[in-house]
């Protein structure tokens, strides 16, 4: 798993809002290492409004969600397209 600090430099030139494909393409153009590209490719195919949305969606080492935050997302139907690694078993 990559860290936020490893992904962040490859998002500086992305023109937000951006689709997942555009973000991955920009990271490839900037020479991102394979583990960063893999994290970005694992994101859901939606529009991302800013770097923070990308960092939350990409497979990066971040703080775990609390049970309350997970419950709120489960009730919010606009967040149903969740990356597979974020789904509970």
From TrEMBL:
Chain residue ranges for the region called Disordered: 64-89
Pfam families for the chain: DUF2795 (PF11387)
Biased composition (Basic and acidic residues): 64-74
UniProt-recorded name of the protein: DUF2795 domain-containing protein
């Amino acid at each position: 798993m990559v860290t936020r600090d490893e992904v962040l430099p490859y998002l500086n030139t992305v023109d937000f809002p951006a689709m997942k494909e555009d973000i991955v393409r920009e990271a490839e153009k900037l020479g991102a290492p394979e583990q960063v590209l893999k994290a970005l490719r694992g994101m859901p195919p939606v529009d991302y409004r800013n770097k923070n949305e990308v960092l939350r969606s990409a497979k990066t080492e971040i703080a775990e969600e609390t049970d309350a935050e997970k419950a709120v997302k489960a009730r919010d139907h606009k967040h149903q397209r969740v990356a597979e690694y974020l789904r509970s078993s």
